[in-house]
Amino acid sequence: MTMPISMATQVTCVVLGAGEYPDPHPRLPRHHLLIAADGGLDHARAAGLRPDVVIGDFDSAAGPIPSASDAEPAETIALPAQKDDTDMLSALKIGWERGMRTFHIYGGLGGRPDHSLANIQLTALLSRHGGIGFLHGDGTVVTAITDGSLRFPGHPCPEPSVISVLCHSDSATGVTEKGLAYRLDDATMSNTIPNGVSNEFVDGVPSYVAVLDGTLVVTFPEGTPIPHAVTSHQSSGGLGAIDRVVSAAVNDGPRSTAAHPVVLYCHRPCSTCDKARAWLDDNAIAYREIEIALHNPDAERLGMWLDLSGLPIRRLFNTSGRLYRSHNISSRLDGMSRDEALAVLASDGMMVRRPVLEYADGVLIGFKPKEWRDALLSYRRGIRV
């Protein structure tokens, strides 16, 4: 039998997003970790709050990004714009990694409906891992509970105060609602039938929403006491590593770069590639990453790199690589024509010097920070030096 787990004693993580905020600005609990996700940094400054962590690609932040030169710098994690995870999910991953299991998220509702829906999904993600998240915005609080219950204390309800309970998982069984205007006992709900909309709190009466198996999304008015959450769903694993790339599933192919102005050809075990990747991430430059050992460039692309770089063809070879030495390329290269040398390079991605960075105006072969900084000036967003 799984024992219920109370989240009442958990340290709280407060995440500030870029959406709509209640007025006045949020009051922080006594013990908390404060994370600003991208444009949430502007809201933090407006409220006189100093985040512990600032994370995002900073495409919606209007003010300057914190740097090491600040009097009390926040920990700043710059992400590329093109990646699978939203900045909000990245913020939750940071909080979870640091032991947080209760999250209050401001600026996650209102504005674009796709952003609101995505953030509601994240409350379900937290609940399925044994945590809980409360989205605040647009006069509403949204949360999710998996295999557990939410207990609301009795509170004044001078006007109709609506609570809605919707199924997020394919189905939810053992759904119970007590202490509300309409009682529900051991019901089964589906995520295609919105039959849990518009129940009401009763003035001064404690209430209870529970689900035996499944995930419920629950909405209630801002100002309602935050419910005490109990779940039998054990806290399991993490939310995953911070995402910095677009997954291969959404790529058109290794040679399609129309939607990605900066493309990094690299090899994961290569330490120089690690430095190049870190430099791009630190400077919030969006890029698409291609594993050169799996998607070796063809002779046409290699010829383009040669022409754009203005380098001698020898500089395109990975001269410290095993293939270069085992094929005795050093002594053979002078006797090769351009086409012959390009054919050798195209035969295996490990023949090619790395990293290679394609961008709209040219190509960079190898990693030299000053050279990359000068070339990519127009791509920078909030460089930290």
UniProtKB/TrEMBL annotation:
SUPFAM superfamilies tied to this protein: Thiamin pyrophosphokinase, catalytic domain, Thioredoxin-like
Domain Thiamin pyrophosphokinase thiamin-binding per the UniProt entry, residue ranges: 148-217
Record keywords: ATP-binding, Kinase, Nucleotide-binding, Transferase
Pfam families given in the database record: ArsC (PF03960), TPK_B1_binding (PF04265), TPK_catalytic (PF04263)
Enzyme Commission number(s) of this protein: 2.7.6.2
InterPro entries: Arsenate_reductase-like (IPR006660), Thi_PPkinase (IPR006282), Thiamin_PyroPKinase_B1-bd (IPR007373), Thioredoxin-like_sf (IPR036249), TPK (IPR053149), TPK_catalytic (IPR007371), TPK_catalytic_sf (IPR036759), Tscrpt_reg_Spx/MgsR (IPR006504)
Keyword Ligase: no
Record-level GO BP terms: thiamine diphosphate biosynthetic process; thiamine metabolic process
Gene Ontology molecular function, alphabetical: ATP binding; kinase activity; thiamine binding; thiamine diphosphokinase activity
SMART domains: TPK_B1_binding
Protein family membership: Belongs to the ArsC family.
NCBIfam families registered for this protein in UniProt: arsC_related, thi_PPkinase
Protein name: Thiamine diphosphokinase
Lineage: Bacteria, Bacillati, Actinomycetota, Actinomycetes, Bifidobacteriales
